[in-house]
């Protein structure tokens, strides 16, 4: 699909809100 | 942009700075209310919902993963300064739900429910074939090791006689064949060299606790005990500690590694902690 100049590009994948980052290690 | 679900709550990013501040406060609250075992640190914010409360305030509903540290809950060292127990030491993870009210810039923890579970033996073995694994406190080797260690400590000690308060951790070590334990003791009103009947020795009114690490190694022709204890200097309680809610009731869920401790639940067995409000 060719994006016409001036069209807003499709939004990339939204990073998930959760779970958050692991601070030490994952059991 | 935060997702507004229209269900009365807003989804917020788990790594949002204010969410992290609330999560750290909730783990502080947990450590102030743990009565046994080891303090915990925040490892991961699993889920968060922000509920709007009428007429004012919001409630953070949090699901947190914590990890056990190597500091006992009676140790005055701030948990943030304590080492996190590593996988090779048979780590213990906590799963906690908290409800925290934010109103007029103040945070109040009004619900807390936590369970702790040790890592799987497979995970430990993968990294360290000869590392110790958690075992139940009523294992005969554990009871023997704690008794031998405490008797040795009191025999070497020409002052106060110390009594066992809590077994906090016990490991079965394959190489060298041994049992290692960590336990809490408290000073009594008896002299260690003059004790005839320990049952007659009473804990001091001004509690003086100590934390001991010991091991009983099986050798050809016998066994060898080694024990080291440090006393917990009494720390002046921070003023806020007096505003804690009612003493938490800890009811013991079915132990995951069957660590049914005669003295106290270990952080290695799931324990649920229901606590009252506290500012």
Question: Could you characterize the architecture of this molecule?
Answer:
- The complex is a heterodimer of chains A (27) and B (279).
- Chain A is mostly loops.
- Chain A is 0% helix and 0% strand.
- Chain A is rod-shaped.
- By secondary structure, chain B is mainly beta.
- Chain B has 3 helices and 13 strands; from the N terminus they run ββαββββαβαββββββ.
- Chain B has helices spanning 17-33, 121-127, 140-156; strands at residues 3-4, 9-11, 38-52, 58-72, 92-103, 106-118, 133-134, 160-173, 178-191, 209-219, 222-231, 249-252, 271-274.
- Chain B has a 6-stranded antiparallel beta sheet with strand order 1-2-3-4-5-6. In chain B, strands 7-8-9-10-11 form a 5-stranded antiparallel beta sheet.
- In chain B, a hairpin with a 2-residue loop joins strand 5 (92-103) and strand 6.
- Chain B is flat and about 70 Å long.
- Classes of the chains: A little secondary structure (27), B mainly beta (279).
What attributes characterize this protein structure?
heterodimer; A: 27 residues; little secondary structure; 0% strand; rod-shaped; B: 279 residues; mainly beta; 6-stranded antiparallel beta sheet; 5-stranded antiparallel beta sheet; flat; disordered C terminus
Topology:
The complex is a heterodimer of chains A (27) and B (279).
Chain A: no helix or strand
Chain B: E1 3-4, E2 9-11, H1 17-33, E3 38-52, E4 58-72, E5 92-103, E6 106-118, H2 121-127, E7 133-134, H3 140-156, E8 160-173, E9 178-191, E10 209-219, E11 222-231, E12 249-252, E13 271-274
Antiparallel strand pairs in B: 1-2, 2-3, 3-4, 4-5, 5-6, 7-8, 8-9, 9-10, 10-11, 12-13
